[in-house]
Every structure is written in structure tokens, then in C-alpha cells.
Amino acid sequence: MTTPGDEPLAPPPRSRHLVLFIALVLGVGLAIGYLTAPGPWYLNLAKPSFTPPGWVFAPAWTAIYILIAIAGWRVWRQDSDGRPMRLWWIQMVLNFFWSPIFFAAHLPGLALADILLLLGTILAFIATAWREDRLAALLFLPYAAWVTFATALNTGICVLN
């Protein structure tokens, strides 16, 4: 018989893991955005006519990062070492490298290579997750659309400059 207080600790509820995923993705994403904010170099670049105003990017990425985190949490719960989770981590690395490459290093060509790999990885995640967790795959659709648009912007900047 155990006395009160001797019971083993229960594992943390799944919602705590979701909060950790959101904090990680949103925290790192926003920190990178803050540290590599567009400066005079970017402002002086020729940009495609379809470039949105700067204020659009922070709310768009905030919403997308939350969707990315939820999708990652969902596939992590099913198989933390599975192919969807590995693709999830790869796309996070590629995502987080793009801003420093583009805005800090001023290398739009290398950033274009990064974003093309990112888009391919996002699409691979969607295809792979679709078989195991359709909701996780669907959560990546806005991300795929936004990164497709960002790829067009990055391409336009490379061509115009």
C-alpha cells in the first residue's frame, strides 16, 4: 500500500506537449524574424509588383507557425521517429535558415535554393503525413501555398536584381 504523496508522477498531459511545440516553433520563428528584420538593403531592392506590404508577413507567419506546430505535434504523437516527423524537422531547419540567408547574408540566390528545398520538403511532408494523419497534412496546405508565393517573390527579386 502506498501513502499519499508516494504515487508515481503522471506523465504530462498531451496538451503540454502541444504548448511546447507552439512555443518552440513560434518562439524561434519570431526571434529569427526579429533578428533578421528587413533593413535598408532589402528596401532598396527591386521587387515584383505582387510584393505585399511589409505588415502582412508577421501575422501570416504567426498563423502559419501555429499550424506547423500543431501538425508537428500530431505526427510526433503517432511516431516521433517516423518519416513525417523527420520531414517536419527538415522543413523547420530549412524554414529557419531562409531569413538569415536572405536578409542577413544578402544572398537571395542561395535563399532561393533553400526555399525550393523547403517547398519540396513541405510537399513531401503533406504526401507522407496524408497516409497517417490527414489533419496534419491539411494543416500544411496554407504553409505550402504561402511558401509557393514566397518562392515566387524570392525568384522575382533574383531576376530583378
UniProtKB/TrEMBL annotation:
Q: What is the lineage of its organism?
A: Bacteria, Pseudomonadati, Pseudomonadota, Alphaproteobacteria, Rhodospirillales
Q: Which residues cross the membrane?
A: 18-35, 55-75, 87-105, 111-130, 137-157
Q: Which UniProt keywords apply?
A: Membrane, Transmembrane, Transmembrane helix
Gene3D superfamilies attached here? TspO/MBR protein
Task: Quote the PANTHER family the UniProt record gives.
Answer: PERIPHERAL-TYPE BENZODIAZEPINE RECEPTOR, TRANSLOCATOR PROTEIN
Q: Which residues form the signal peptide?
A: none
Q: How does it sit in the membrane?
A: Multi-pass membrane protein
The source's domain of life comes to Bacteria
Task: State its location(s).
Answer: Membrane
- Single Gene Ontology BP term? tetrapyrrole metabolic process
Task: Tell me which Pfam families the record gives.
Answer: TspO_MBR (PF03073)
From the Swiss-Prot or TrEMBL record, give the protein name: Tryptophan-rich sensory protein
Record GO cellular component, one term: membrane
InterPro entries referenced in this protein's UniProt entry, alphabetically: TspO/MBR-related_sf (IPR038330), TspO_MBR (IPR004307)
The similarity annotation says: Belongs to the TspO/BZRP family.
